[in-house]
Amino acid sequence: MWVWWIISFTILIVCSIFAYRMIVSSYEFLPVDKRYFLGFFKNPAGAETGPLQKESLKTLKNKVQSVEDSNTFYQIQLSKFQQRLKILEDLNTPKSADEAIYQKKARVEEEDWKEMYYEENEQKEKLENELDVTKQMLEQADNKLQEFSENNFRSTQLQSEYENKLYEINSLQNEIELLQKQLVASTEREKELEQLLLSEITIREKYSMLQKEYVQLQSDADELRRRMLELNKKDMNLEMRLAHLGELESKLAICEQEKSKLKSYLEKRLLG
Q1: What is d(CA 264, CA 247) in angstroms, rounded to the nearest whole number?
Q2: How many whole angstroms separate alpha carbon 127 and alpha carbon 135?
Q3: Any idea which UniProt keywords this protein has (predicted)?
Q4: What ranges make up the beta strands (E) of 71-185?
Q5: Counting Cβ atoms within 10 Å, is residue 31 exposed (0-12), middle (13-18) or buried (19+)?
Q6: pLDDT digits (tens, 9 = 90+) for 140-192
Q7: Which residues of 246-264 are buried (b: 16+ CB within 10 A; e: fewer)?
Q8: Regions in the chain scoring below 70 on pLDDT
Q9: Are 156 and 93 in contact (CB under 8 A)?
Q10: Which of 35, 65, 107, 109 can bridge 40 by disulfide, Cβ–Cβ 3.0-4.6 Å?
Q11: Any residues with CB less than 8 A from the CB of 32 and at least 6 apart, and which?
């Protein structure tokens, strides 16, 4: 926007300078009393007015009118130029907005992938911690079970407790198996996310390579068009030369016929 204001101000200054030069160039046609106010000459005493001064005033008015017309023309051209620039800005704005939206969307998707990856890692660590705690609990339960088996004299009293602990052990084993399955699933999910990230990186690299190839293909196509135009020009010149050569050959054949006719005629004349 500042560029357009600077251009407008520059054009306005040029128009003002042009108008001032037009007025200064016609100072000889000004009346003497008007020259005093413009600073060209001092006002002499007893200056007389006449038809020449009226004519010079009329000429000056005409020149001022022409300068005003020129300024109006330049203002119209400037307004048209500003309208064209505004149209070009409006045409360029959607493209820039689309590129900004695409880049923002790509960044959001990349952040979402990273966030999911970090969440899976946290869940994996949590499951591993739970698995360690469960193993410790299982070891403690095994130790208690050994203690219960060694104390045979308390077997009757501890039978019910043993069964309860055995049930807890089975439950813990089931939980361990479930946690192991979840750990395997989280590991597979982590691998899938890594593959997705790698595929995203590969797609972006391929996109940049395709853009470079597209630019190269465009330049090659332009070069081929230029060469085709040159070949077409050469073909046209060759066809023109061939046509001219055909005309010369036909003229040569006619000359040969006339030459043979003239030769036979001369032989007849000489023999006759």
Answers
A1: 26
A2: 12
A3: Coiled coil, Membrane, Transmembrane, Transmembrane helix
A4: none
A5: middle
A6: 766 766 776 676 666 677 677 778 888 888 888 888 889 888 888 888 888 88
A7: eeeeeeeeeeeeeeeeeee
A8: 1-12, 14-121, 123-124, 126-135, 137-138, 141-142, 144-145, 148-149, 151-155, 158, 272
A9: no
A10: 35
A11: 41, 43, 44, 47, 53
Q: How many CB atoms lie within 10 A of CB 60?
A: 18
pLDDT of amino acid 45: 41
Among candidate residues 74, 81, 89, the one with its CA nearest the CA of residue 13:
74
Per the listing, tokens 């088996």 go with 149
Tokens standing for residue 80: 């048209």
For the purposes of burial, counting CB atoms within 10 Å of the CB of 141, is it exposed (0-12), middle (13-18) or buried (19 or more)? middle
Q: Are 175 and 127 in contact (CB under 8 A)?
A: no
Asked whether the beta carbons of 158 and 151 are under 8 A apart, the reply is yes
Alpha carbon distance 216, 212 (integer Å): 6
Residue type, position 250, single letter: S
Q: How far apart are the first and last CA of the chain?
A: 103
Residue corresponding to tokens 């593959």: 195
Name residue 177's amino acid. E
